[in-house]
């Protein structure tokens, strides 16, 4: 229900919003604040750190670097997957750094930066339940509302029964309780989730993926200067080795979620 | 059951990231509730009296206006105010303000009808007696009608305020970090303690709501009004 209202709000009214008032990059520098939407429930991309009580994670590190380059204060706004486009459309944030998959459909409503992360859509199931992608059509699968995972799964496996949840941890609770037989999300996000589950030996991420996704920063539609600024920022981050440092902090060999880096900024 | 998840995150549940970030958790729930309770009380009183004092078209217009706010879900009003006003009018309402405005308007509309019913519950003889003493309608309302009607309305106000405390949890839809929102964040991070966390959250809501009830009872007794403790 809410999701439909959100989409309706965005589609019907982003047209009214118009594109050109002041330039957003100027606004950010004038106000001295960069407002970034980040996940608050999706380690290691964005989650509330138990010690500092602040939102932390890979996406947040990118946000911190960007604010530092701009020389402005960083203000983090917690978001779930479905609120990302409304937050941009309603001018509540300047940029979305929340594991945001680049798609043509979304590009009609927001600007995307060049990709800074890549992943594929994968699954978590109880051990032994899910062996190959052929089984997906006959399963009950938990998805997150407002994600590309939901759309891809509906297109490729129309016979699967989909149950939509507000966020990945809710979907995982449903899996734990037996309401669904598998849940789907981007592979790295699932690895991050499973790393925090005390009885993780009962679950597995089967070694196949059903899509290749590129993750970028979401920016307000039509803000070309800000988008170019963020693109340059991302390229610099890769050139200086900072992008690798950030990656290693969350997915390096010594972390809870070791994952080989298969994508570098500028590859696509 | 392992309640160490509660003790480890106690300050986050109660205060959010404060003092190193915005106030959140149970403290923000209290702030939202107190502000909207006061505002809805004032709105309810003003609109309720207006209902009692108006006739004809003005009365009908007011009934329609209040009917609108009684008919839409709080969740929708919060969502639309937060995301729609900036898009359509370029008018930015912060999250906390949005929730207070939405709860006050809807709570106030409910209370207006309680106030109206309270005023109507007095026999017409009271108005006539006041008029016979030479009081105007406003004076009659202030010195004769409201002092008798307000105590009758107290249980309705209390009901509405308790409902409002619990409705403040709907602020989650726009990411305002009140009690149930921060509890969800912790639950999502810790993964396996939803029972402990949400039992604790239920206990906090119970404590907040019961203290309001006890406090209102104590005030009613002290000022010798009609509401008797049960």
UniProtKB/TrEMBL annotation, chain A:
A cellular component term, taken from the record's GO annotations: extracellular region
Family label: Belongs to the bacterial solute-binding protein 3 family.
CDD domains, per database record: PBP2_BsGlnH
Residue stretches making up the Solute-binding protein family 3/N-terminal domain: 33-254
Domain of life the protein comes from: Bacteria
Keywords: Signal, Transport
Residues making up the signal peptide according to the UniProt record: 1-22
SUPFAM superfamilies for this protein: Periplasmic binding protein-like II
Protein name per its UniProtKB record: Transporter substrate-binding domain-containing protein
Entries under InterPro entries matching the protein: Bact_solute-bind_prot3, Solute-binding_3/MltF_N
Organism classification: Bacteria, Pseudomonadati, Pseudomonadota, Betaproteobacteria, Rhodocyclales
Gene Ontology BP, a term: amino acid transport
UniProtKB/TrEMBL annotation, chain B:
Gene Ontology terms describing biological process: amino acid transport
Membership in a protein family: Belongs to the binding-protein-dependent transport system permease family. HisMQ subfamily.
Species of origin: Pseudothauera nasutitermitis
UniProt entry tagged with the keyword Transmembrane helix: yes
Name under which the protein is recorded: Amino acid ABC transporter permease
Protein localization: Cell inner membrane; Cell membrane
Entry-linked InterPro entries: AA_ABC_transptr_permease_3TM, ArtM/GltK/GlnP/TcyL/YhdX-like, MetI-like, MetI-like_sf
Transmembrane region(s): 23-50, 62-83, 95-119, 140-162, 197-220
UniProt KW keywords: Cell membrane, Membrane, Transmembrane, Transmembrane helix, Transport
Residue ranges occupied by any ABC transmembrane type-1 domain in the UniProt entry: 26-216
One Pfam family, short name: BPD_transp_1
Membrane topology designation: Multi-pass membrane protein
Gene Ontology MF annotations: transmembrane transporter activity
Cellular component GO terms, alphabetical: ATP-binding cassette (ABC) transporter complex
